[in-house]
Write a structure and sequence with these properties.
Structural class of chain B: alpha/beta
CATH class of chain B: Alpha Beta
Distance between the termini of chain B: 21 Å
Order of helices and strands of chain A: HEHEHEHEHEH
Structural class of chain A: alpha/beta
Oligomer: heterodimer
Number of strands of chain A: 5
Helix content of chain B: 40-55%
Strand content of chain A: 15-25%
Strand content of chain B: 5-15%
CATH topology of chain B: TIM Barrel
Number of helices of chain B: 21
CATH class of chain A: Alpha Beta
Strand order of the largest sheet of chain A: 2-1-3-4-5
Helix content of chain A: 40-55%
Number of domains of chain A: 1
Shape of chain B: globular
CATH topology of chain A: Rossmann fold
Number of domains of chain B: 1
Order of helices and strands of chain B: HHEHEHHEHEHHEEHHHEHEHEHHHHHHHH
Strand order of the largest sheet of chain B: 5-4-3-2-1-9-8-7-6
CATH superfamily of chain A: Cobalamin-binding domain
């Protein structure tokens, strides 16, 4: 990644982000690529590993004091699982932690996820730099 | 990491293949060493395992399919068989793959999503209704619960009066790559290896025409590995299974005949052809030289191929039809025994009947219109293809040596070394796409801002499918003989604690008693625990 200044190269410096795999989907390479890219952009990344319950993910997010949770879902269960994670965060009084989603998300489902409060939806075709920049803007 | 300056400027052709192999502009006759090649059907099988190629027998056209309930999937299977498909390939949902019953809270959101829900024998009876199991071959993409699904297939054949010895088909049953990519592991590595050896040793006697394992590179490939790495990891895993089977007292001349393999084919035509030819030659050499295998059939490298996967993109999705056609040609020139062509919309939804039919027709056009299947290994002897095959083979061997030097593939997986390496490779691949160095037409090059990316028809899962699965599940729990279930599960648990036992007969008994996948997995977890995933990046 070429950049002119340190800040431009690491726009996520100081941010803490959980990258999580809720549900049973085992396709984790997208989550890992995002985790590496966010780390390279300066963020502290906590990757949960596979098959985590929404409650577990919310608990990790709160315990680690993160700014954002990124959920990676490729199994088609994103509507159910995202709703459950958002609910679990609220149950822990952590509704202010921002939720982002990546994976195989049909265009028709974007509005439904946004109405749950999701702040950004990313698919595999989006350039990583764009993902990082958008995230940096969202997290201020 | 900037996007290509103008998406319509033609990129330069590179001198290196995606597997990192140098590709000269011109290759002369001096590049070919005929003694390394051999004849079709003869050691070292560079040119294929059969002397008559596809003239004797065409590859099996086998489309991966399954979703929602057993009833809906049964209907789709009959549709595909009516279209001239010659084998079934069963897609199972994640609860079935990971060993959870539909009623489990982890399972609920995933019921019937990426495949059919198959929680117990009564569902298998519905899934195969009206399909002659003695006449078609059935392939199951199943790993963590492969032994259980295989047991269920035997149980349903028993019920239908089909002799077990007549069954043909494949269970993927390759747990090692699940730890690296795809992720449907359940138990720790060692007991998982035992379960695999149990299925292979049992199958060699009970279902001698069945492939009890399909050692798969496909998933690491789709996750980021190059063609050379895909083949290297797969062969390394294959050798780990061979060593384990020998340790268990298996006769390599016998079990090696039923080992099969499985790969993705992506878009770089000659990397793919060379990968398949080099892998076939290397495996035969390993069998003969390292293990002194004498029977040529036990040196055969038989494999299926998927065309598509992560090489398919959402941008201008109809372009994917052409990608799949090119990839299918590479699979045929590489000598595949069975081919699954992805539908053009498969990268982002369950295919519709429309897209699924085009995928089948693609194979039929290549088989019966193009003429490329007439002559065995039509690229054999090409200066470039033989040179690229040699270089590919050297590259594969180099990667296998690195794994050996680390301490073997099992250690590399348990430590998370291979997983971390793959993640790094995936990041590199993604960066090359982002910068435009790797060309994806319609996505990072040759795209228009106003281009159409709609897929046309959208597949919708029946939203009530999960409820129907749950109702059926409750009904079987209420009506089955609970004492028989408990007795058989207890016997299974006892056998699992004793390494000398083969678990297959116990699992088949459990299936006949309508024990569920979740119950059998829970019983085995009590004995073996669960895999602890290394999550370091």
């Amino acid at each position: 990644m070429k950049a002119t200044t340190q800040d431009a190269a690491t726009p996520l410096r100081g941010k803490r982000i959980v990258v999580a795999k809720p549900g049973l989907d085992g396709h984790d390479i997208g989550a890992k690529v995002i985790a590496l890219a966010l780390r390279d952009a300066g963020a502290e990344v906590i990757y949960t590993g596979l098959r985590k319950t929404p409650e577990h993910i919310a608990r990790v997010a709160v315990d680690e004091g993160v700014d954002a949770v990124g959920l990676s879902i490729l199994s088609g269960s994103h509507r159910e699982l995202v709703a459950q994670v958002v609910q679990a965060l609220k149950a822990l009084d952590a509704g202010d932690i921002k939720v982002f989603v990546g994976g195989t998300i049909p265009a028709d489902d974007v509005a439904a996820l946004e109405s749950l409060g999701v702040r950004g939806i990313y698919t595999s075709e989006q350039p990583l730099q764009e993902v990082v920049e958008k995230l940096a803007r969202e997290l201020g | 990491m900037n996007a290509p300056e103008s998406p319509l400027v033609a990129p330069q052709l590179t001198q290196t293949s995606p597997s990192g192999i140098d590709v000269p502009v011109r290759v002369g006759a001096d590049a070919v060493d005929p003694s390394r090649i051999g004849a079709p059907g003869e050691f070292p099988f560079t040119r294929g395992i059969f002397p008559d190629g596809y003239r004797g027998r065409l590859w099996t056209i086998r489309q991966y399919s399954g979703f929602g309930t057993a009833e809906e999937s049964n209907e789709r299977y009959r549709f595909l068989l009516d279209q001239g498909q010659t084998g079934l390939s069963v897609a199972l949902d994640l609860p079935t793959q990971c060993g959870y019953d539909p009623i489990d809270p982890m399972a609920r959101p995933e019921i019937g999503k990426v495949g059919v829900s198959l929680s117990n024998l009564s569902e298998a009876e519905i899934l195969f209704k009206g399909i002659d199991l003695a006449a078609i071959s059935t392939s199951f993409t199943i790993n963590g619960t492969a032994a259980i699904v295989y047991a269920m297939y035997l149980a349903v054949a028993d019920k239908l009066g089909v002799p077990r010895a007549k069954l043909t088909g494949t269970i993927q049953n390759d747990i090692l790559k699940e730890y690296v990519a795809r992720g449907t592991w359940i138990f720790p590595v060692r007991p998982s290896m035992r379960l695999i050896a149990d299925t292979i040793l049992f199958s060699n006697d009970a279902t001698p025409r069945f492939n009890p394992i399909s050692i798969a590179g496909a998933h690491v490939r789709d996750a980021g590995a190059t063609a050379a790495e895909e083949m290297a990891y797969t062969l390394a895993n294959g050798l780990a299974y061979v060593d384990d089977l020998k340790r268990r007292g298996g006769d390599i001349e016998k079990f090696a005949k039923r080992l099969s393999f499985f790969f993705y084919v992506h878009m770089d035509f000659f990397d793919e052809v060379a990968k398949l030819r080099a892998g076939r030659r290397l495996w035969a050499r390993l069998m003969k030289e390292r293990y002194a295998v004498a029977d040529p059939k036990a040196q055969h490298f038989r494999f299926g191929v998927v065309c598509g996967g992560s090489s398919l993109v959402a941008a201008q999705p109809y372009n994917n039809i052409v990608r799949v056609a090119v990839e299918t040609m590479a699979a045929v020139m590489g000598g595949a025994q069975s081919i699954f062509t992805c539908a053009f919309d498969e990268a982002f939804q369950i295919p519709t009947e429309f897209s699924a039919e085009i995928a089948v027709r693609t194979q039929q056009m290549i088989a019966y219109e193009s003429g490329i299947a007439r002559t065995v290994d039509p690229l054999g002897g090409s200066y470039f293809v033989e040179q690229h095959t040699d270089r590919m083979e050297a590259s594969i061997e180099g990667i296998m040596r690195e794994i050996d030097e680390y301490g073997g593939v099992v250690k590399a997986i348990e430590d998370g070394w291979l997983q971390a390496r793959l993640a790094e490779r995936a990041l590199e691949r993604k960066m090359r796409i982002d910068t435009g160095e790797t060309v994806i037409v319609g996505q990072n090059h040759f795209r228009r801002e106003d281009q159409k990316n709609e897929v046309g028809e959208v597949f919708r899962l029946d939203p009530n499918a999960a409820n129907r699965v749950l109702e059926k599940y409750q009904r079987i729990r209420d009506t089955r003989d609970a004492a028989a279930v408990a007795k058989n599960l207890a016997r299974l648990g006892k056998a699992a604690a004793d390494e000398r036992e083969n678990l297959m007969p116990y699992l088949i008994d459990c299936c006949h008693a309508y024990a569920t996948v979740g119950e059998m997995v829970a019983t085995l977890k009590e004995q073996w625990g669960e895999f602890q995933e290394p999550v370091g990046l």
